[in-house]
Amino acid sequence: MKKAIFFLISCILASCSRDNINILENEHVRFGFSAENGALLSLYNVKEGVEHIDSAKAVTCPLWEFEYMPEVPAVENLPEVVSFKKKGNDCLEIYWKQVEGMDGPELKATVRFKKDRPSLADWHIEATGLEGLGVKAIRFPLINGVKPQNEKDELALGVYTGRLYRNPWSLVSEDKPLSSRRETGYQAMQVNVLYNPETDGLYWGTEDTDAWYKIYDLSVYPDRAQFYIAHYLRMDIDVDSYSTPYPSVIGVFKGDWIDAASLYGQWGRKQNWCSESRLKKGLVPDWVLKTALWEWNRGRSENVLPEAVALQKELGLPVSVFWHWWHKCSYDVGFPDYLPPREGREAFIKAVAESRKEGIHCINYMNSYKWGDSDPSWEEKNAHLWCIRKDDGGTISKVYNIFTGKSLTCMCPSTEFWRKTYADMCDTLVNVYGIGGVYMDQCGQAKPCYDTTHGHPVGGGNSFVKGHLQMIDEIREALSSHPYDAPALGGEHASEFWMRHMDIGLPLQAGDERMGGHTYEIIPFYQSVYHEYQLCYGNFSMLVSPPYDEKWPEQFRPKDTEVILPDEYDRQFMMEQAKTFVWGIQPCIANFHEHLFDTKPQAMAFLTDMVKTRYQALDYLIYGTYVRCPEFPKYEEEIPICKLSTYAPDEKRVTGSFKVVPTLYSSAWKAPDGSLGIAAANIADQARVLEFTLDPAEYGLKSKGEIRILTADNEPAVLQSYDGKTTVRFNIPERSTTVLSIR
User: Would you list the DSSP string of 219-283?
Assistant: First the structure.
């Protein structure tokens, strides 16, 4: 079969004529470029005999494009003369030059195979003659005509925790392609893959250690896909030339997204965000590490702290608080007018101090870079001078709160004004009010700023991220005199560039169904690379309807604020908690009330079981390295799903649908001591007998050992011993969790 495919590819290349295509190849991958315009006509997996490019669809697509500033006309005299130069066996240079006698931009691309991962290649672009042209970004490499293999194709994106599209070609039409356009930050890992587990995969991304602003753009049509990376240029100086300060990476691999994660991790794990990660260096506060469950409640202290104390007493394990709507201002309207707290300074300080005596720690919400432009402070402090400006001079503003119609505007963290404003608030909240830390909402994002008065590189560059990280360092300095336990800083999502600065990240994707129906599945792509370097916590899982801020207009207050959801949605709650558990994320319950132990006994029993089981397996579920889990039987069931929206008319706050979901979730982890942990969660109403084959050599285990079973209510018990390759059989009861410890 491979010989036939190879013959077919050879015929395609022959039809293009060897004179019209230039080849760079090694024993793993072959790149073929059009001699006429430099387009990529072939991306061929040599070992597997798979071609990824439909040359007929790719031939007219250039390898690069310019993006321009607003109202700047496109360059008419683009370079038309294309030439190639081989640099040894592992490097090809492609030149685009002007016709003799013409002036204008010229470019050079360099494609070089990696020595450590030879199925991948580094791609760089250089451009000259740019001065005065208004080029905002260069799209490179622009790859078109990526073709389907078959219906088993899968697309995995390094966005947030990770997204997986099964057979993406079937999810789109010519008029409605699947589009993904993600900036630095949102792209938590710089890797995307399109693969077929039976054949091979296409790998693309970047390897940038300094958070330069870029956009990863992907479009999938029924018969092809196109992707590019847009690299943004500085616009504050007349720059005649530009060279990408990091490589784009394109190549092939064999396997699925777990194999791709391993390939990416060979680079990512060597970077300073791992060697200097706060978790790895032991800098995450001890109380954060010991947190068994987070309570995510909102409002005044009486709706938050006594409930946390009650939850902790019921569990018999440490509970910490993730606290929204504690502040003076209306949520998503009056930022950053947070202080004093809405219940008053003295009452707040007293409530926090009393809960601290019970062992309760809190991290409180403050948005990391938004200002309400309707708040009086916007004018009083001339905040508009320090906000991010778009390329057309406008601000980046968005209305989140539909009840008020008032917007929040993005501030520039490169400015001392914003960094000091935010750090001072953190200082007061922690050192005066006694809070255990700050949750910096929307941390982990990046924006280009085109304001020429801020003193940072305009447009392209990495000023946003570097300013944000500098702000975090300044906050830590301000909190160094904290009189109680070490304070914690948390941020939304999790992303490479923030890993060595933040204690914890909040990925909400375990409850993605609750936030809306999607054609993709959530996968622990990020955790599979960085779990032991980045502590994550939380989800939006709840058993009641959404709350309503007392500061919002009373006329829009819904009738069902924090009303118990129908029992039919309890399985969804358990599903969200199960994914959190097996993905190695600290669990959380939103909008908790003590009565739920009586009104939702099954759901709360599952949560309690999971929290207690997890607490016996922290070497795996905090410090463990993600490894491929043995294959278990696949169990699925159609369950009711509720979509919740705080910002929706009364009748649309809770809407129902159905979805087929797994009822058994599992994962595997290597602990620092070399032992293997297998976590399993069963959300079905019936017990499951699970059987799998264990090969100790596959996991680097000793040939002889024993398997212990960890559950919520029992001391670890020996399930069985093993001697070489062994069949393992165990029972997981209905609505329960288990961890197997194999050593």
Answer: EEETTEEEEEEEEEPB-SS--S-EE-SS-EEEEEESS-HHHHHHHHHHHHTTSHHHHT-TTTTT-
